Model the fold of this input.
Amino acid sequence: MAIADLCRQAGYAEKTATILKAALSEDEVKARLASYDQIKNLCQTAGFPDKAADFIKDDCSVSEVQNSLLALLTSEDETINNALTPKQQGLKPTTSAIDTQAIYSRRNRT
Done:
């Protein structure tokens, strides 16, 4: 099957020229087209469906897209502030509500 036909059937007719310039075999073309589908799915799943076209246009690999999407997702995260508040800083450790020594000493007596 012709490379142009493969591209057109997969929905990536605009990539025909790029793929032809790369002189890929038919199996390599099918793998590249499958990676484009993976990129679309990754972007859709991550909530950035509009980014897929740019990644495909730039011939990014699936792993590059995964890294980019992860960076996008984590950039939106807020920094977690786990510092103790002034009120918490003055607290002293309390004893456990459960006295394990007493429980085991009772069990061992019977």
